[in-house]
Batch of 2 targets.
Target 1
Amino acid sequence: MVETLGIAVGAFLTLAVVALHFARGTEYATPDDISQEVLERRAESVPETDFPEPMNRSIGGGGVAAGAVAEGEAEGELAEAEAEVDDDPAAIPDDEAEVFEVEYVKEGSTIEVKENTTLLEAGEEQDWDLPYACREGQCVSCAGHITNGGNSEDYVEHHTQSMLGEAELDDGYTLTCVAYPVADLSLETRETP
Ligand code: FES
């Protein structure tokens, strides 16, 4: 008897809840999508910068400018690289290169060296065992002494040397790995300042 009464009350309550639900609803309305509005408000609150920022915080800001600058930078670097190639005596074609007489004093020989060949390379082509390390003008392993008198750059063009100061150049020192002849000269190899 009690069980039947319990079941009946339970069923009644369940039906009442279902009926209420369909009669009134939950009154919950799904909100509109405000994400775009929020993004726009954030964009307005962040000032535009005059410079490109990586991952610029403001919407639409910086992306184009950053691209434009990156493009400009790339063009600048390209122009610089081209200028460097143009400046590089090694880029002079063999059939256009001027030839100079270079006396290698210690080796007891005078050879012809083209203006597109370093003093080190020219010596190596003679099978002389000349010292070197970086071959980029960044050490002094290949240093030599031009004995004609005066600044060594009256006789050679140093391409990208960063080790010899003005005083050492004035004394006639050279880095043979990056030294391209621009005049006849006499060279003592294995001479460091
Ligand atoms: S080998 Fe290093 S400067 Fe010439």
Target 2
Amino acid sequence: MEMHTTTIQEDKGDGIFHKAMNSESKPVWIPGPVIIGAGPSGLAVAACLKERGVPFLMLEKESCVGSLWRLKTYNRLQLHLPKETCKLPHMPFPPEVPAYPTKKQFISYLEAYAKHFAIEPMFRQEVQSAIYDARMGFWRVQANESEFLCRWFIVATGENAEPVLPNIEGISDFKGSLIHTSRYKDGADFEGQKVLVVGCGNSGMEISLDLCNNDAQVSLAVRDKLHILPREILGRSTFCISTWLLNWFPVKLVDRFLLVCSQVILGDTHKMGIRRPKIGPLEQKKSTGKTPVLDVGAFSKIKSGKIKVTNSFPLSSCLH
Ligand SMILES: Cc1cc2nc3c(=O)[nH]c(=O)nc-3n(C[C@H](O)[C@H](O)[C@H](O)COP(=O)(O)OP(=O)(O)OC[C@H]3O[C@@H](n4cnc5c(N)ncnc54)[C@H](O)[C@@H]3O)c2cc1C
């Protein structure tokens, strides 16, 4: 089969891929990887390729880098992990940024990172399909009206980018407003209102705290067993302590240590309606991928009764 393509030797930051795409309707041959997604992962890969002089094309469906952070997160969000564990390769956070950067600071960091490495994603390009042509030995990547051909294809589309709204029994009769966390911005919008937060992960816990701080009456629906850990132990990041301990001790022992510390710092979560799984937090993360909740203050509101935990499922009884 004869195929007509446009071949681009190298994008030196002058947007040559973009021009080629605009001027031709033929498939565009990329002499390097195509990366989908201009979030932190995509940017990190792109910077490493730039450092080695490897040309690439980055496709992003939104019109900015770090779109998850910019468009789908709430205002009070800070990194749950310290900045040194969240920095991207070859560029640390500026020293004036606090240990747990705010959402704004994290977005500024991502923008500065893209600028520093001259990463120019092609925005508003949603990849619809990517098919490996085994006979020819390359990928055919379809984005909007364009087709790209490449030998390497890197998917950096994230694990939280798409909202998932479960089918909640009785929800069709619910008269109030229903929003997914990706559209939640600020507790001030709910002042004085009764709010049910469904799901007790890091986002659910922090949004409950935000609502509570803004005088909403908050109930938190907790279905599964989960681990809540303090964000810090004796002023040190729990995450950093855990990874350091894992250099010397087995997971089970580090888990035991974390659970004793949690008991001392937070108290008994079970008494508050939040049951812990049989396996420890790190073992659970390893075997199921489920991240423990790092508490940033919500648990004390639960203990004081300001956030009410409900374990009653189905939720229809709570929806009035
Ligand atoms: C509320 C919240 C708090 C978090 N807090 C932390 C934290 O404190 N620390 C931490 O390390 N992580 C945290 N995370 C996890 C978060 O997933 C990471 O911070 C980070 O954003 C993951 O980067 P990523 O590049 O893998 O994915 P994303 O940031 O999700 O980026 C994926 C990109 O791919 C684009 N994309 C998706 N599909 C397509 C397509 N078909 N075509 C083109 N583009 C596409 C998306 O538009 C997006 O820009 C948090 C997440 C949330 C939601």
